[in-house]
Amino acid sequence: MAAIDIRADPMLYEACKEDTETLCKGVKNGGGRIQACLRDKRMQLSWACEEQLFRQEMENADDIRLSVRLFSKCLPDKRKFCKDIEPGNARTKDCLEEHREELSTECKDEVDSMIERRVRDFRLDSRLRNVCENEIFNMCAYFGDLDDIDTYDSSVINCLQDYSGEIKNAECKSQVKKYLQLAAQDIRFDVPLAEACYEDRQKYCANVPPGSARVIRCLSNNRDNLSPVCRATLFDEEVRFSENIDFQYPMKSACIKEIDRFCKNIPHGGGKVIRCLQDNKNKKDFGKACADEVKGYELEMSKDYRFNFRLHKACQKDVDKLCPGLCQAKDGSR
């Protein structure tokens, strides 16, 4: 099987022969080990090898059994969380992703690696490709061939996120929201932010582990020191994330009980649950951890009206008309 033994895939084997000898010397063949080694060193690969490696990865995207390292690392988790899921159509991968916070460390690391590759090329997520095909071609003006390995495009998922409010297809909308939630939780899953803030992250947040929005919060705390491109990109993402409590990971995690108690039947979008938490934060049985998160969020909102989704939406036209030039639209100044 080609996913297990690189020699069983003649095109991949020939394209990556020199890279394997140089970068993966001593790695035993079989078990998908050489392919895993090559993926780990993707930035150092020759173009021909990277192209063929991507082609095999795209072909194997539907079935977890063909993602050898993911399958082996996640087998106990698969049995625990996804035992009734039929293989194929990326169903098991999606199931593991849904249980991401509950997975064993080694399985979670592999799932996170899979998500990182998906956000950099949407074609590795077969479900997104299928349910959002019309939106990819029409909204995002994607002119490439979905099966063409000669092209590489990391902008499609970001485009779908930009137009998420206009997507009518419920299945596509759900997939796009999933990627927004992931981006809000982990900078590795937010390609524009990760690339714009790479050097700033090394400078100010090098010891901050990814996940739970820790790096994003670290960057926000160092906002005044960030490079212009990082500061502007961070600002754009924070404005985007202000729309939904599901994109406010620290607040949502701290406020699980309060959301259930005070905001149970309120839609999560449109900033409505965030407003509900604000309205109830001084109630006697409102938890301190949640109250602290809400107050911290209010402090950020007080610095720029665009961090307040409801105010931004209601007053944008008036601001443009009455206060032209007061807020810089793109540089994140406040």
What portion of residues is helical?
A: 55-70%
Which overall shape is indicated by the principal axes computed on the Cα atoms?
globular
Question: Could you list the spans in which at least 5 consecutive residues all have pLDDT below 50?
Answer: 330-334
- The number of helical elements comes to 20
Order of helices and strands: HHHHHHHHHHHHHHHHHHHH
What class, by secondary structure content?
mainly alpha
Quick check: average pLDDT? 90
**Total E-strand runs:** 0
Strand content: under 5%
Q: Give Rg in angstroms.
A: 22 Å
Could you list some keywords that capture this structure?
334 residues, mainly alpha, 57% helix, 0% strand, globular, disordered C terminus
Short description:
The protein is an all-alpha fold. It has 20 helices and no strands.
Can you characterise this structure?
The structure is a single chain. The chain is 57% helix and 0% strand. It contains 20 helices and no strands. The radius of gyration is 22 Å and the shape is globular. The N and C termini lie far apart (56 Å). Residues 330-334 have low confidence and may be disordered.
Mind sketching the topology for me?
Layout: H1 10-15, H2 17-23, H3 33-40, H4 47-59, H5 68-81, H6 91-98, H7 105-120, H8 126-131, H9 133-138, H10 156-162, H11 170-185, H12 191-196, H13 198-204, H14 214-221, H15 228-241, H16 249-254, H17 256-262, H18 272-280, H19 288-301, H20 309-322
